[in-house]
Amino acid sequence: MEYPSNISTKLPKVSTTIFSVMSALAKEHNAYNLSQGFPDFEVSPKLIEHVHAEMRAGFNQYAPMEGAIELREQVAIKTEKLYGAHYNPEKEVTITAGGTQALYTAFTATIREEDEVILFTPAYDSYAPAIELCGGKPIYVPLEAPHYKIDWNEVKKLINRRTRMIVINTPHNPTGTIFSADDMAHLESITRDNDIIILSDEVYEHTVLDGFQHQSIARYPKLAERSFIIGSFGKTFNVTGWKVGFCLAPTNLMREFRKVHQYMVFSVNTPIQRAIAEFLKDENNYIHIPDLFQEKRDFFIRALNGSRFKVTPTQGTYFQLLNYSNISDEKDTEFAKRLTVEHKVASIPVSVFYHNPTRDQVLRFCFAKQEETLEKAADILCRL
Ligand code: PMP
Ligand code: GLN
Fold first, then answer.
1. Residue 234 in this model has a pLDDT that exceeds 90
2. Which residue pairs from 285-292 have beta carbons closer than 8 angstroms and sit at least 24 positions apart in sequence?
């Protein structure tokens, strides 16, 4: 069937997201799927049991629009414990249908026609389309492999009276880099004399590796008072299919956020919110997460020993970039496809996260996998 007229598309440059494309290709060719970021190991049985208990106890109807108060309280407690910031659970915490919805809602609630939004590329692929649908204009700041460091003096030059927002993402998808305290000081300095909003995508807050400290916006009161912070329980508790996340923001920003949220989803599924609230009460359920992923990263890198890939160990997230310039001259999109179809290992080409795709020969591999999966995939990669 076809709509019997021309549709003037609102997103002419957008096609199906790379995550759907590569996961579908992996399935079609029965490849090890290290592309889309999701774990292939068991979820905590305790967490699953909490969900069952909530359902059995009858918590199966609408949650409050802002989220179950039990979960908002636990998010506030965790934020205070880890980052020393107090967020009022009544007014400054909202539970969302994953990080994606939280991001979309924050953009929709604040970006107007002609507003400029600074994005560092490579950037997670949902940011720019959301901004454009609001009539906003993404201003791209390309970062260079392999360290993807931000030159804050260059960022400062881009700021003008139309700059409405700066989006940051630490730990960073797809590069696996993290912000330092110095980055935060620069961000504080360039936003001191203006009213720019910061959107801080912190969905990988619990996967900062090598003993580094997560530079949450919440640690910096001057930044926190102008910021949305986005989190994802899907990422934190290895349940990406549950699609539950949260947003933290000062009261007046959150008021606007909720005006949109209430009509975008109204509220998020009740038993899972309550189960996560229960699970968060024990800090042992989250403080050891970096150890698990550090082990997996190290296992994957060790397994790649002797391969022709160039590796700069990732600092955060559960993604490892691998440079394949010693193996092939192909474009990353082509190489990623061939690797999936012919060699049965799926990855994500990094160039798709740039506005002007680079010729960098870099692929992103998800190592949130069982050792057996990583071993088998690495074995194939070592033979290239
Ligand atoms: N931001 C980044 C950087 C991500 O990688 C993801 C994917 N998990 C999201 C946001 C969206 O999170 P969710 O799956 O909770 O929607
Ligand atoms: N965040 C995940 C990734 O980067 C995927 C999310 C999605 O499929 N939309 O791979």
1. yes
2. 285/44, 285/46, 285/47, 285/237, 286/78, 286/206, 286/236, 286/237, 289/206, 289/207, 289/236, 290/206, 290/207, 290/208, 290/209
Pocket test for ligand 1, best of 120, 232, 276, 364 (most atoms within 8 A of CB): 232
CB 316 within 8 A of CB 209: yes
Atom in ligand 2 nearest the alpha carbon of residue 348: 10
Q: Report residue 131 as tokens.
A: 């901004």
Best of 173, 268, 276 for a ligand 1 pocket test (most atoms within 8 Å of beta carbon): 173
Quick one: which atom of ligand 2 is closest to the CA of 173? 4
Percentage of the residues of the chain whose pLDDT score is greater than 70: 100
Q: What residue ranges define each of the domains in the chain, with the CATH number in brackets?
A: 18-43+287-382 (3.90.1150.10), 45-285 (3.40.640.10)
Q: Longest C-alpha distance within the chain, in Å?
A: 58
Length of the chain: 384
Token representation of residue 359: 């010729």
**Structure confidence at residue 83 (pLDDT):** 98
Neighbour order of strands in the sheet with 319-323: 310-311, 319-323, 362-366, 348-349
What angle is formed at CA 87 by the lines to CA 252 and CA 133, rounded to 5 degrees? 45
